């Protein structure tokens, strides 16, 4: 394992070096939080794909393939569909707003009264996303170094917190680009063909497994529908995703770069399911489906290649963890703390240098994430709660604000409150992992949003006029001229 260890150590050292480089570059709030809004299409595509394809997409995607066959691709596939929908229909308008958070967008659209409540919901989502990503380090470092869970979480979490705190979005962008390359080589170009060959090829896989393993809908229609609601719609409204959209240097970068990233996700989804299916042939009686990735890597790959593929898994976890961490800290500082102090951050125009404050919040949130990850046991339940709150509470007011002119601030606030409370109550009644809470919570949020909006005074025409100006890209600071690193 010495060669494998060397590959991992070099990779981790490189992540820290990128953090140091980013610290020298991030001199303003815009540079620190959204990389100066000047990423070009190639870097934007790579970093967007990196953040959405985390440990759940890699380790979990292979596990679903092990359990259900090719239809196990649906979870990651719906993530790709969500990213495609965001890129094609909404990303250009989002990028033109020149804001830092989803709550700032809601304030612009509805007149400044939705920020704190929506910020709290978004903060809870990004916090739990960061926590669940951090817990995934335990699985990978256990395979690598045979260390206990707590040490693994502290080791992986400390590295991510370090480079994220040092350079903010610039550090995360550069490390994500490296992680994207490592993931592509490790999972798509190495693990996928090796797994299929070791399993005897597709003909041998079909001969040894039940036919339902090759049924595209074998995982079940209701499960697929739930994935669409949670992950496809979740991609449309998550702060971690929007904060990457804010880094695009132009409308076309956001649209086409995101489309490339979404297409990459679809390919990654199928690859994970195929790897899991191959693992089922080789190891038909694993104690857990989620152990399929680590088992096939540990037992079937040659020295050196094994280290690179494990680095790919580590890259997947780190990219999601760092993206969720900076999103969590941005929401905590800009949408909650600043508003409670009576200081509302403004996107565009002249801005104070707030790098130190945002850096402090990343450090504080990072320590909190590590501590919660150590204390928390059930990752699936925590992530389900986060996504249910996000979709049930914020999907309707966000998409309503973008698509329906008659939506009002009162309607948005009512939708957030009713949707969030309904989801929490229904999870208590049906169980956290049940499908009904997000179904009924979303319907309740939609009904209240429409009813309250129609029953209250329309949004001030001046607010809507300012909103349209921002959507058109007018009245905001133009991004700086891109330098070579952004291309």
From TrEMBL:
The chain crosses the membrane at residues 6-23, 44-66, 72-95, 116-140, 152-173, 180-197, 217-237, 258-279, 308-332, 360-379, 385-404, 411-432, 438-456. It is found in: Membrane. InterPro entries: Na/Glc_symporter_sf, Na/solute_symporter, Sodium:Solute_Symporter. GO terms for cellular component: plasma membrane. It is a multi-pass membrane protein. It holds the Pfam family SSF. PROSITE patterns: NA_SOLUT_SYMP_3. One of its GO terms (molecular function) is transmembrane transporter activity. Its main location: membrane. Keywords: Membrane, Transmembrane, Transmembrane helix, Transport. Belongs to the sodium:solute symporter (SSF) (TC 2.A.21) family. This is Sodium:solute symporter. The lineage of its organism: Bacteria, Bacillati, Actinomycetota, Actinomycetes, Kitasatosporales.
């Amino acid at each position: 394992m010495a060669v494998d260890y060397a590959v991992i150590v070099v990779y981790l050292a490189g992540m820290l070096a990128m953090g140091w480089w980013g610290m020298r570059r991030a001199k303003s709030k815009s540079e620190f939080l959204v990389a100066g809004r000047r990423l070009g299409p190639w870097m934007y595509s790579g970093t967007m794909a990196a953040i959405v394809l985390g440990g759940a997409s890699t380790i979990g995607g292979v596990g679903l393939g092990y359990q259900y066959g090719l239809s196990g691709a649906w979870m990651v596939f719906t993530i790709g569909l969500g990213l495609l929908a965001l890129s094609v229909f909404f990303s250009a308008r989002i990028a033109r707003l020149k804001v830092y958070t989803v709550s700032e967008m809601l304030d612009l659209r509805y007149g400044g009264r939705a920020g704190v409540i929506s910020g709290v919901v978004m903060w809870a989502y990004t916090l739990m996303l960061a926590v669940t990503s951090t817990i995934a380090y335990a699985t990978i470092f256990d395979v690598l170094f045979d260390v206990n869970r707590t040490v693994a979480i502290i080791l992986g979490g400390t590295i991510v917190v370090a480079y994220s705190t040092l350079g903010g979005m610039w550090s995360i962008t550069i490390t994500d680009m490296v992680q994207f390359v490592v993931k592509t080589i490790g999972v798509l170009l190495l693990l996928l063909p090796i797994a299929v060959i070791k399993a005897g090829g597709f003909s041998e896989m079909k001969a040894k497994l039940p036919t339902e393993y090759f049924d595209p809908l074998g995982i079940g229609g209701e499960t697929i529908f739930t994935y669409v609601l949670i992950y496809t719609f979740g991609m449309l409204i998550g702060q971690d995703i929007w904060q990457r959209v804010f880094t695009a240097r132009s409308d076309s970068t956001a649209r086409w770069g995101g489309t490339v990233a979404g297409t990459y996700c679809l390919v990654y989804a199928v690859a994970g399911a195929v790897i899991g299916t191959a693992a089922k042939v080789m190891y038909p009686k694993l104690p857990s489906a989620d152990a399929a990735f680590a088992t096939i890597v540990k037992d079937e790959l040659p020295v050196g290649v094994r280290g690179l593929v494990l680095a790919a898994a580590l890259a997947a976890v780190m990219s999601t963890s760092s993206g969720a961490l900076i999103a969590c800290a941005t929401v905590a500082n800009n949408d909650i703390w600043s508003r409670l102090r009576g200081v509302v951050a403004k996107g565009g125009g002249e801005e104070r240098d707030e790098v130190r404050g945002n850096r402090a919040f990343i450090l504080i949130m990072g320590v909190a994430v590590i501590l919660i990850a150590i204390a928390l046991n059930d990752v699936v339940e925590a992530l389900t709660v986060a996504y249910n709150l996000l979709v049930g509470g914020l999907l309707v007011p966000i998409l309503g604000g973008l698509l329906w002119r008659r939506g009002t601030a009162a309607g948005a606030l009512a939708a957030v409150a009713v949707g969030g409370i309904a989801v929490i109550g229904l999870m208590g009644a049906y169980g956290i992992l049940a499908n009904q809470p997000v179904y009924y919570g979303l319907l309740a949020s939609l009904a209240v949003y429409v009813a309250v909006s129609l029953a209250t005074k329309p949004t001030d025409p001046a607010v809507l006029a300012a909103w349209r100006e921002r959507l058109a890209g007018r009245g905001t600071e133009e991004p700086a001229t891109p330098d070579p690193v952004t291309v």
